Amino acid sequence: MHCNTFLNVTAPIYQSLLYSPAFMSKAVTPYNDTRSKKAQVEEMFDNIAHRYDFLNHLLTLGIDITWRKKAVKFIGTVQPKRILDVASGTGDFAFEALTLNPDKVVGFDLSEGMMNYGRQKAKDLKVEHIVEFVKGDSEKMPFTDDSFDAITVGFGVRNFENLEAGLKEMYRVTRSGGKIAILEASMPHNTIIRALHGLYFGKIVPLVGRLFSNDARAYNYLPESVRAFPEGLEFVRILENIGFRNIEWQPLTFGACAFYKMEK
What we know:
Blueprint: E1 3-4, H1 12-18, H2 37-59, H3 63-75, E2 82-86, H4 92-96, E3 104-109, H5 112-125, E4 131-135, E5 148-154, H6 163-173, E6 174-185, H7 191-213, H8 218-228, H9 233-242, E7 245-252, E8 257-263
């Protein structure tokens, strides 16, 4: 299996960052109560659905649009006709994928509240016959083996309750040779940028999120879950163990976003 990381991860500074406690997976949930992570994530996204698109573009300064375009360009190399967008939310990734002229795009998510906004977008764009939203659990997808040419995931894998189970399902429903593009929020490695990002991500984002979303926990959970996620080489190794091939890891925007490219 081939891995190309675009970074000299053998350098001591990167090794210390990649394997520091902040990058090791641990249990982080939106509301820190006794319910399953799935139940808490579903409630959180239902709560913030009415402000999600606005806050998503505001807090990333609109750069998230560019990130999705890069990911869609990557999966476009296999000319996919059936595309699955996991953790689709309001469907930004699913609608960007329409530029590839697919026959079908399925947005798959836990949150009915988020998908209702996506369905309205599809109606407004008159693409309901192409873009469909399906509610479900990423660990138990209601799709047959090898049924999609490509999969996208935008900032959703860190919300999986069982990361490996969700990734195995993604592998199962992708056809041989199909492409998978995963975008995930990450922590910059440059010391100065990391400090500035930490201030913005740890203080400003939760404050703005509370003001506009009316959910005090949702935008505190965001930086907490990013710090807990197995980023970089650690995540690449998980992907390799699942069976994905030709994995590439590319930091975007000074490392604020990680772009993982792979195929089955």
